[in-house]
Amino acid sequence: MTSDRSWVSRNRYNEFKYLTEEYKIGVNDFIKFAWDNRDPEDGGLIRCPCEDCANKYFKDPSDVKVDLYLNGIMKWYTRWDLHGERDMPRVEVAETSARNVHYGDEDIVIVRDPTNFFVDLTMFENNHFMDDYVEEQNESDDEDQNENINIDEQSDNDDLT
Questions:
Q1: Percent of all residues in the chain with a pLDDT value above 70, rounded to a whole number
Q2: CA-to-CA distance for 156 and 154, rounded, in angstroms?
Q3: How far is the C-alpha of 142 from the C-alpha of 145, rounded, in Å?
Q4: CA 103 → CA 112, 117, 122, 127, distances in Å?
Q5: Cα–Cα distance between 85 and 25 in angstroms, integer?
Q6: Phi, psi (rounded to 5 degrees) for 118
Q7: Does 159 lie in the same domain as 116?
C-alpha cells in the first residue's frame, strides 16, 4: 500500500468524466487497509468514509467501494484512524513550544504542539494539585445542600400559614 494519500484531496474524475486510475488505486488501497485492520466485532463490516456516510455507517467493503466511487471520500480523511491506523504524526522538537508554570511546590509543563492542542504534562512529587479544587467543590456542594434545606423549611412554614 502506498503512503501517498494525495488522491483523497484530488478530483476523482478525469477530463472524460471517468474515475482516475489514481483514485481507483487509492480506493482499493483504502479498502484493503480498512479490511486488514477491521475490528472482528464489526462482523465483516467497515466504516464508510464517503462524503455522504462520513464514517457514521458500517458497510460491506464492496458497498463502501461503490459509495467512494459515487460520492467521493471525505477530502480531509488522510489519517485513517477510524480504520485502524495507529501511528501518531511525528512532532519535531523545533515545532513545539513549552512553558513552565509553578503551582505551589509543583511544576507544570504546558506543551503546545503544531496542531494547536494543549497537552498538560504534570510532574508531581505529591498529588495535591486538585485538593483546592476538590475542597471548593465540596464546600459549594455543602452550601447548595444547606440552601435547599432552608428553602424546604421555608416552604413547609409557608404551608402552615
A1: 52
A2: 5
A3: 5
A4: 19, 21, 11, 12
A5: 19
A6: -105, 130
A7: no
Q: Which of 70, 40, 42, 72 is nearest to 58 (CA)?
A: 42
C-beta separation of 22 from 40 below 8 A: no
Whether residue 1 is contained in a domain is answered as no
Model-wide pTM > 0.70: no
Query: In whole angstroms, what is the distance from residue 136 CA to residue 139 CA?
Result: 5
Together in a domain, 97 and 52: no
The CA-based angle 48-41-7, given to 5 degrees, is 25
Over residues 145-160, the pLDDT tens digits come to 656 555 656 656 565 5
Same domain, 79 and 92: no
Q: How far apart are CA 85 and CA 51, in angstroms?
A: 20
29: in domain = yes
Q: Is 118 in the same domain as 77? A: no
Chain segment 24-64, per-residue pLDDT in tens = 999 999 999 999 998 888 889 999 999 999 999 999 999 99
Q: Provide the 8-state DSSP code for 107.
A: E
Give the domain range for residue 139: 135-161
User: Domain tally for the chain?
Assistant: 3
Same domain, 106 and 64: no
